[in-house]
């Protein structure tokens, strides 16, 4: 089997890359370990930066998002018993879109299948070979049969726990990591959102977040212990804790899904080894407080798709310009933005959560910073411009 670009992983990164390449006549094969049903129902991110919205619209896969997504013009910060609004539109002229990650994934899978392009679900024994040569290969098993996929490039879009990053010799990678001493207990519940915009609450009992997916479905999070046992959280305990921390009128309703997400900041540098390019969570993780993970994944593959387009030139099929400049710049181009987004995600996390080792001094300092944000236009604007999304290329 032969293709131009082998893409490992059908999350937002792998699927969007496949779509962007196909639009430019570049052939690719997508390999995914899980089933279609699993990836289409994996509840994760929910906030799209304005640029992510533009990328999906320009790629022709934004119609359902524009019809069903919720356009948000700001967020609320709750602390010290009060509620403050950060008006993104007024501060930056931009908005964000609430649209579940699994909806983005569904739209991209539908587009790939409608174009009759190769997308293999439930593959196993995936391994990467010769990525330090001009003819890399991917071996995998599908339907019990062993395959070898020969290609020009491999895109490692297989998430934090994937195999691609691990194939890079350790001495060629620098890893930067911070693990936070807490996690998020997240639920998806069948209740109308209790606020028309997201609420980030810094409470004595810990952080809480009110988000949503539609007019009838809410997404809610509670700061919890990193090893929290979800069994210890019957519905009534979740609702009463959410009410206490969010300080809003919150109806109880059926809990459709619950999970605990550990929190970490992580960057692997460079995001490339030979002809293997890492994108999205395979290369970096952010704590979800800044709502950035899916957006970073989409920004990476936008850069990668453009670099591959410049390699293949206008006539992808058969022809190639062989220009490596943009591919050579890929890692540096992405990392300069990745680190700014890492900083923002770490900052939002530190600003809003309770840390066990915090002294009363630290708590006062957190409040002072929150007060500063809601009382200074410059400070609010800093939060807003990061939240709606920094420019793609510097
Ligand atoms: P994904 O989505 O993890 O996709 C990787 C895919 O690779 C597959 N895979 C393999 N396939 C073949 N062979 C192998 N050996 C493979 N190993 C793995 C996996 O099955 C999977 O399908 O990575 P990608 O595409 O880089 O996308 C990243 C995002 O998923 C992630 O950053 C976000 O979900 C993070 N995130 C959020 N991001 C936001 O932008 N806004 C948010 O509001 C937001 N909230 C969140 C989040 C993540 C969360 N969790 C659960 C991690 C909230 C939560 C709770
Ligand atoms: C979500 O809706 O899942 C969500 C929203 C904002 C965040 C994280 C997650 O910061």
Q: For the report, how would you describe the main beta sheet?
A: 8 strands, mixed
Assembly type? single chain
As a percent range, the share of strand residues is 25-35%
Question: Could you say what the CATH architecture of one domain is?
Answer: 3-Layer(bba) Sandwich
Query: Roughly what percent helix?
Result: 25-40%
- Structure annotation, total helices: 11
Overall number of strands: 20
Fourth-tier CATH superfamily name of one domain? FAD/NAD(P)-binding domain
CATH first level of one domain: which class? Alpha Beta
Structural class: alpha+beta
General form: globular
Return residue spans where pLDDT drops below 50 for at least 5 consecutive residues: none
If you compute it from the alpha carbons, what radius of gyration comes out, rounded to the nearest whole angstrom? 21 Å
Indicate the CATH topology of one domain: FAD/NAD(P)-binding domain
Write the layout of secondary structure elements.
Blueprint: E1 5-8, H1 12-23, E2 28-31, H2 36-40, E3 47-48, H3 50-58, H4 63-68, E4 70-72, E5 74-79, E6 82-87, H5 88-92, E7 96-98, H6 101-114, E8 119-120, E9 124-129, E10 137-142, E11 145-150, E12 153-156, E13 174-189, E14 199-203, E15 206-212, E16 218-224, H7 235-246, E17 255-269, E18 272-273, E19 276-278, E20 284-285, H8 293-312, H9 325-352, H10 360-375, H11 377-388
Parallel strand pairs: 1-2, 1-12, 2-8, 5-14, 12-19
Antiparallel strand pairs: 3-7, 4-7, 5-6, 9-10, 10-11, 13-16, 13-17, 14-15, 15-16, 17-20, 18-19
Helix pairs in contact: 1-6, 1-8, 8-9, 10-11
The structure holds 8-demethyl-8-dimethylamino-flavin-adenine-dinucleotide and P-hydroxybenzoic acid.
8-demethyl-8-dimethylamino-flavin-adenine-dinucleotide binds next to α1 and α8.
């Amino acid at each position: 089997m032969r293709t131009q670009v082998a893409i490992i992983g059908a999350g937002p990164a792998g699927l969007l890359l496949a779509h962007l390449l196909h639009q430019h006549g570049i052939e690719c094969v997508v390999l995914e370990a899980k089933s279609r049903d699993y990836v289409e129902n994996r509840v994760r991110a929910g906030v799209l930066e304005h640029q992510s919205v533009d990328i999906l619209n320009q790629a022709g896969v934004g119609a359902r998002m524009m019809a069903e997504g919720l356009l948000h013009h700001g967020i609320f910060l709750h602390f010290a018993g009060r509620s403050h609004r950060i008006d993104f539109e007024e501060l930056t002229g931009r908005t964000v879109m609430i649209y579940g990650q699994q909806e983005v994934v569904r739209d991209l899978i539908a587009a790939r299948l409608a174009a009759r392009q190769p997308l293999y679900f439930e593959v196993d024994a995936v391994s990467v070979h010769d990525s330090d040569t001009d003819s890399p290969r991917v071996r995998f098993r599908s339907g019990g049969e062993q395959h070898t996929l020969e290609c020009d490039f491999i895109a490692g879009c297989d998430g934090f726990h994937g195999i691609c990053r691990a194939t890079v010799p350790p001495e060629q990678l620098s890893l930067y990591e911070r693990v936070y001493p807490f996690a998020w207990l997240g639920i998806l519940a069948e209740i109308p959102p209790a606020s028309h915009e997201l609420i980030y609450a810094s409470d004595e009992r810990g952080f809480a977040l009110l988000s949503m997916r539609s007019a009838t479905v809410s997404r809610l999070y509670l700061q919890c212990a990193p090893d929290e046992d979800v069994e210890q959280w019957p519905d009534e305990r979740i609702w009463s804790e959410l009410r206490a921390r969010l300080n809003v009128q919150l109806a109880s309703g059926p809990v459709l899904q619950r999970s605990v997400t550990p929190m970490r900041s992580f960057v692997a540098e460079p995001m490339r080894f030979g002809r293997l390019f890492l994108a999205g969570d395979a290369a970096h993780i952010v704590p979800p407080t800044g709502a950035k993970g899916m957006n970073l994944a989409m920004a990476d593959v936008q850069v990668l798709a453009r670099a591959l387009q410049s390699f293949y030139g206008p006539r992808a099929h058969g022809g190639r310009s062989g220009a490596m400049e943009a591919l050579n710049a890929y890692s540096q181009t992405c990392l300069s933005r990745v680190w700014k987004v890492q900083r923002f995600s770490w900052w939002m996390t530190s600003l809003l959560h309770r840390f066990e080792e915090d002294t009363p001094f630290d708590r006062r300092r957190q409040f002072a910073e929150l007060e500063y944000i809601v009382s200074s236009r410059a400070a609010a604007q800093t939060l807003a411009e990061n939240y709606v999304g920094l420019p793609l290329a510097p």
